[in-house]
Amino acid sequence: MSFLRKSTDSLHFRFAVLLACVFSGFAHAANTKLTSPSVALSSPIAGATTTYTFKAKLRNRSGADIAVGNTVTLTFPSGTDLTNLGAVTFQGTLVSAANITKTLSTVTFSAPGSVNKGTQFTIVLDGVKNLTTPGSYAASITTGNSSGGINTGNNIFLYTIVTGAPVKLAITVQPTNTAAGATIFPAVRVAIQDTIGNTVTTATNAITIAIGTNAGGGTLSGTKTLTATNGVAIFNNLSINASGNGYTLVSTSPSLTGVKQRPKNTKRWHYKRPAQPRSVLARVCRMA
């Protein structure tokens, strides 16, 4: 009896494994109908308008062909802008504007040519505006035959958006009112950014900070020049020795556009202990 039970259990296990492999194979076939998908961007910079070139090879299987007139849809991540999409070419043939439908992040067109199974195809889109946030993204493609069936499935094209060149500085952490002579808190952070405000994490420029509007005739003390780390300089030991309303700080770096904080008047603050001399908060104010 023990031998029979073990034999039966072994058969059940093998049958279960066989079913799992079969269904796994079905699922794989249903979801992977392109091979070697790739996408190249003429400019991968965040916010840039660029050309996307998609390439992939249809699997060598029945029903994987793309016929003339089949619909082809490319879907981009939300935030991609296809508003000013220009030319669309399929296998080197320009797609008629009348055969193109687009939304903000999706474009659908009728194939002007055919692609046989097992053959590589190329799609070129001009005038795609990249997302403004750097990172790794994926676009997908679907194609349908004349009866609306899907014959290449949802297939993923992976690509990367990067920051632009460093062009400007921005104060990303603003200080609050601080007592004269005390360390300015929170620490002032200055970021090196591209044209659309992304921090360029590879930038290591030297950044200098100084008083812009000297509302109380004070002197700025602390480490006033730092080398950016991951595109950011953190000034954590600054202080101004004299009180005043409307101090501003100015950050500069060679070849980059500097930035200053906008003054904003506030009421003076006093120590309440009569035996102590009056102390007024030095105002280091926010920029717009």
Give unreliable regions as ranges: 1-8, 10-32, 146-152, 262-288
Number of strands: 22
Secondary-structure element order, N to C: HEEEEEEEEEEEEEEEEEEEEEE
Instruction: State which percent range the strand residues make up.
Output: 35-45%
- Average predicted local confidence, pLDDT: 79
Overall form: rod-shaped
Strand order of the largest sheet: 1-2-8-4-5
From the alpha carbons, calculate the radius of gyration and give it in angstroms.
Answer: 31 Å
Q: Give the proportion of residues in helices.
A: 10-25%
Secondary-structure-derived class: mainly beta
Biggest sheet layout: 5 strands, antiparallel
Q: How many separate helices?
A: 1
Q: In angstroms, what separates the terminal alpha carbons? A: 84 Å
Keywords for this entry:
single chain, 288 residues, mainly beta, 5-stranded antiparallel sheet, 1 helix, 22 strands, rod-shaped, disordered N terminus, disordered C terminus
Model description:
The structure is a single chain. The strands form six sheets. The protein has a five-stranded antiparallel β-sheet, with no helix packed on it. The chain has a five-stranded antiparallel β-sheet with strand order 6-7-3-9-10, with no helix packed on it. The longest helix is centred in the first third of the chain and has 30 residues. It is mainly β and 288 residues long. It is built from one helix and 22 strands.
